[in-house]
Amino acid sequence: MALMITDECINCDVCEPECPNHAISQGVEIYEINPDLCTECVGHFNEPQCQQVCPVDCIPLDPEREESRETLMQRYEIIVARG
After folding, report:
1. Helix (H/G/I), strand (E/B), else coil: 26
2. Could you tell me the pLDDT band of residue 83, with boundaries at 50, 70 and 90?
3. Which InterPro entries match (predicted)?
4. Considering only CA atoms, which of 51, 45, 54 is closest in space to residue 20?
5. Among the residues of the chain, which ranges form H helices?
6. Considering only CA atoms, which of 56, 55, 9, 15 is closest in space to residue 30?
7. Is the pTM of this model over 0.85?
8. Percent of the chain at pLDDT exceeding 90
9. Helix or strand or coil: residue 14?
10. pLDDT at position 1 over 90
11. Are 50 and 3 in contact (CB under 8 A)?
């Protein structure tokens, strides 16, 4: 699954620099995660780094983007290949 940021986000700015895939960006009101770039840090870390640093725990799995670890690894490989 890709991750998502809920409206509990307080715009604290700590998640964006932690994302190794640059999937997190400032949206109109809160930060957003591009699901096409999110690998839940598969390929980089054992756990999603944004979830680790979020002070309000507003970054759950996106229930509309169920993906296997293999799919996330394939996405990671594509992102890395692009440079």
Report:
1. strand
2. confident
3. 4Fe4S_Fe-S-bd (IPR017896), 4Fe4S_Fe_S_CS (IPR017900), PSI_iron-sulfur_center (IPR050157), YfhL-like (IPR047927)
4. 45
5. 49-53, 69-82
6. 9
7. yes
8. 95
9. coil
10. no
11. yes
